[in-house]
Amino acid sequence: MHNPESKKDPIELKSPRELELMRNAGRVAGLALMEVQKLVAPGITTKDLDKAAERFIRQAGAKPTFLGYRGYPASICASLNEEVVHGIPGKRKLKDGDIISIDLGATLDGFVGDTAATYAVGEISEKAKELIFYTKKSLDEAILLMREGNRLGDIGACVQSVVEPRGFGVVREFVGHGIGRNMHEAPAVPNYGTKGTGIRFDLGLVLAIEPMVTAGNYAVKVLDDGWTVVTKDGSLAAHFEHTVAVTKSGPVVLTAI
Description:
Layout: H1 16-39, H2 46-59, E1 63-64, E2 76-80, E3 83-85, E4 99-108, E5 111-120, H3 126-143, H4 152-163, E6 169-170, E7 176-178, E8 185-189, E9 206-209, E10 212-214, E11 220-222, E12 229-231, E13 237-239, E14 242-247, E15 250-253
Helix pairs in contact: 1-2, 3-4
């Protein structure tokens, strides 16, 4: 999950001890996402996936970060097909050919881990496979740029360079974010931008990088439930996210398993 508002608060760099705590929270989030992935199949409801995630997070001694956040009613976001982010779990059953983006967070010892991925349900189209592949690739390549001295604009420029040549769109209205004791901290992390611009990365910076990519136009709208974001043109969307730290030894993915 990410914040549609641009945060202008001071950027809080994390100490090695705080990064250790964030790694613990991130690991719970990553493992919870893996548990949900195991259940993704035709016939299961998005509510079933939500319950499984909440159960795993709580059994790990953590709290589901999303549940109750600004009134959000679930522990995961489950966004199907043309839904980009913030899909609310419910009675809908997954069916063969769907793609589903799962986004979740875990809070442990006062720190948050936030992660997301898009999965195939049964056999999906070649276009959907390509969308998922390049969205993940854009995140993987952006993570490599989380090094001291690089700049915020490098992240967005990287995402664009991976997906736009394939004819995909990069969502503008929703962005990644800083993360730590709060799920949403400064700075906002757009998935578009100009290399060499924006704030310079310092040791201890932690960002939730989360490309949101569409198979068509990047324009989106929010449905009447006040949460679910969909593509305006009805095209498919994919979403991947990791919580990543800038350290002396390079990028560290805190939500990796």
